[in-house]
Specification:
Length: 379
Amino acid sequence: MSFVFSEKPIELTAGAGVHLYDTNDTAYLDLGASYGCMPVGHSHPTVVDAIATQTATLQFAHASYPTAIRDTLIERLCDLSPIDHTNCWLANSGTEANEAALKFARSATGATKIIAAHRGFHGRTMGSLSVTWKPKYRVPFEPMLEDVEFVPFGDGEALEAAVDDDVAAVILEPIQGEGGVRQPEGSYLSLARKVTAEHGAALILDEIQTGLGRTGTFWACASADIEPDIITSAKGLASGLPIGATLCADWIAAGVQSHGSTFGGNPVVAAAACATLETIMTEGLTAHEAHIGKALRSRVEAEVAAVTDVRGKGLLIGIDTEHPATEVLQQLALEHHILAMAAGRQTIRLLPPLTLEDEHVEQFVTGLDATLTATEVVR
Ligand code: PLP
């Protein structure tokens, strides 16, 4: 029996830019099939060169040895961090970045309770899973961490009522991805900052899906103009190579007594991450995607009649229809060679490379309109 979940009927063999290719050399427009892991596109030459050069020079060094490439990555991440005096921990996935965030918050505060949000997604290892909302993911593996309370996302009063002096951390996505591409009212993150500070709790922002320029600024929390205590990153940070980063303030780092990882910050992944960050910054991708994301959202709204709502920011986009998302995605892939993801029963989620261009928007709008015309609505 295999536990690999390869349920999609397309075998991938290659990738270049915004396209993936199958065994017949058919090109698929990758609007999300890489789960937001390819911000600068597939096999970007700068990233490919960095990986090849690093592999030929120093392929691996355990995290307990310093290396120049890891130091460079840490320096770049700290420079980009919204936290004053940032400290950086490197791991191998998003869920590990959040595990570290939860551990660090508990040891720095001496408190145990964690507040998380309805519909939030933070990963599938036991700590991160305990603060992930969907019962389908959690219930089969219970008992979870004790002392976790879920509050409705975006409800400031509920958050204020839940946070007291026993709380170690509040963990939130600035815009929920997996939970349906949901953005709270502007003041919600500022309120989360205020109440956590009042009670000595850490504010953890999970920017694993929203960060790296995806929503028009390097971090999505920039629009709230707040400084979290901990911010986590992963997914596209090393262009598809496994990485997680936990950035934290001095008072959090000072409380960390022991934590470790064999592979975290290893040279090849660090080189891929440095090249990815350099490409995002030097190619002006954040500004580009803010513009192209806006164009994509307004064209879908104006031209695809069967769409009931379009949400999101930059190139994190959720599209609601009256059609089952699984059927829409299958039609899009097989008939129109467009790969996207679901974020709910009737929500299509797009997380394309930030290098998307107008011609790709055109292909998607035409393909989505034709697909929705050909698919039956949910009754
Ligand atoms: N947090 C968020 C917001 C995510 O979207 C994800 C993955 O989709 C994770 C955490 C977990 O990341 P990983 O799958 O790398 O463990």
